[in-house]
C-alpha cells in the first residue's frame, strides 16, 4: 500500500478508502499527493498543480520552492494535525515532499445551484433560495447588501465534525449586546457532531420550549430584511435554511412573500393567519366543551341539527373529535412521506373518501367532521413548521381539559397557554412583544403592514434603540 512517509497521517486515513494517494516521480524527488476523490477538481489538479510541481527544481538547501498555488502546513502539534485532516476533507489536496506537507485548494464539492425553496413558494418575489453550501448562502445575502456594514463571523462547531457556522448581522442595526449573546451561545455549544437544523434547539433560551424561539427561512430576501431590522442570522454548512433571532409570536405569522405583495392584501392575510392560529389550536376543545357540557349555549336550530346527527353514534363527543383529528394527522403525514406528485392528492382524496365513509358507517357525525376539517385546514395557514408541530400537540391538551372539565377546562387551557407563552424569551426579548410588555405605538404595526412610504426610514443606518424593531413583529 502506498505511504506518504508520515506515519501519523497514514494511520489516520486507515480505512478511509475514499482518500486517494498518488505517487509522482520527478527529477527533484518523488511526491505523494493525497485527496478525497469526490471533492476536488481533477482538471485543475492534472493541468495546473501536478505539472508545476514536477517542473520545480531544488534550491541550494536541497528543498523545492512550492508553486504559488500551494502553501506549507505545520504538523508539529495534535491541533496542527487535526487541522490538516480537516483541510483534506474540505476539498483540498495535500502534497508530501521533502518531509513537508503542502496544501492546494482545488475543491469541487458536490452540490446544487440556488433554486426556489420547495416549502416557501414565491409567487411574486425572488426565486433564488439557500442551498447546503455555506459560502453560496452568504453570497446570496451579500449580493443584496453590498456593504462592509454586513458582518460575517465564522465558527467551527462539533469536536468531531467541525461544522462551519456563520453569524451574520448589520453592524449599524444590531445591538452590541445581541451580537455578544449570539457569539456566546455559539461558542457554548459542546457536541461531537452538529447535524443540520439541530442548532435551532441548541441556541434557544429554553431547549425544552414547545414554541420555536428562532425563526427560519430558506429565502435570502427574507433573511436580508431580518438583518435590516436589527436581527442576527445563523447559517450552518449543510442546511438550506437560515435561522433568525430574536423573534416573537407575531413574526412567526409573517410570510417571506409579504414584502412582495400590496400592503392591504398582506394585512388581510396576516389577520387570516392569526385567526387560523386561534382556530386550529382552540376550536376542537371549544366545540367539545360547548356540545358536551353547555349545549344550552348553542343556537336552537344548530342544536337540533347536532342532536339529530348524533343519533345512534357509538362514540362520545370527545372520542369522535380525537378520532377525526388523528385521522387528519395521519393523512397529513402520509401526504408528506409519499412522492410529491401523489402525496397531496392522496391526502385530500383520502380524507374525503374516509370522512364520507365514516359518516355512512355511523362512526362520526357530519358536524364533528366539519369542525375537525376546519381545524386541519386552518393549520395550513401557518408559515413556521415548528409552530405547526407545537400547535398540533397543544391542541390535544386543550381538548383533554375541555373533555374533562367542560368550558371551565377550556379556559384553564387557554389561560395556561397565555401564561406559558408570556414567560418565553428569544435572546432576552419577550415572546409576546409588543403586546406584553405593552408598547402601544408598536401593536398596530405588528399586526398590519404599513404602506411603503410610511416605512421610508426602515433601512436607515441608525442603530435601533432599546426595545425597538428587534423585539417587534414588524416587517
UniProtKB/TrEMBL annotation:
It holds the Pfam family GerA. GO terms for cellular component: membrane. The keyword Protein transport does not apply. The keyword Cell membrane does not apply. The chain crosses the membrane at residues 271-293, 369-391, 398-421. InterPro entries: Spore_Ger, UPF0353/GerABKA_families. GO terms for biological process: spore germination. Keywords: Membrane, Transmembrane, Transmembrane helix. Belongs to the GerABKA family. This is Spore germination protein. It comes from Cohnella faecalis.
